[in-house]
Amino acid sequence: MMERLETWKLALERLRSAESADWVETGRLVAEIVRMSSDTMLRQAAEQALPVLRQAVDNDDHSVTLAAQRRIGVVLEVILGLTAPRFGRRNALPKKLSTEERARRTLGLPLAVQLTFEDINQAYRRAAKGMHPDQGGTAQAFIDLAAARDILIHPGAHKDA
């Protein structure tokens, strides 16, 4: 699949940089991408480009030509995104949050800031207004909110889960 993407990328760059656009050839290439691409985003970009490319064939209207060039640019951007080298660990799962980090997220507090007792209580009161069962929240969400506040107020009393 990667070789095919590279081939399409080179062909689109060549067609896009040509002095006079060959919309028939570009349309043929984009139709091939629609038929053969397994990537949903690339297929959608190509499908959206096809009608404009077909309209650009034998059309002297400058706005149609510009629209076709923009659509080719979008398809090319998607291909460039798919062929760009990936750095870091592939398919690595996101880092698991600690109990305190989960509690901070629940209360909407930043992860890397020293919190005071008052900061925690203010965040709890603010979040509790919308989470309370009388205000349209669920009982479980309200219990989770109270547990998050307790974890942040008494951090040593709770072990990481």
TrEMBL record:
CDD domains: DnaJ. InterPro entries: DnaJ_domain, J_dom_sf. Gene3D superfamilies: DnaJ domain (1.10.287.110). It comes from the Bacteria. Transmembrane segments: none annotated. Residues 102-161 form the J domain. This is Molecular chaperone DnaJ. It comes from Bradyrhizobium centrolobii.
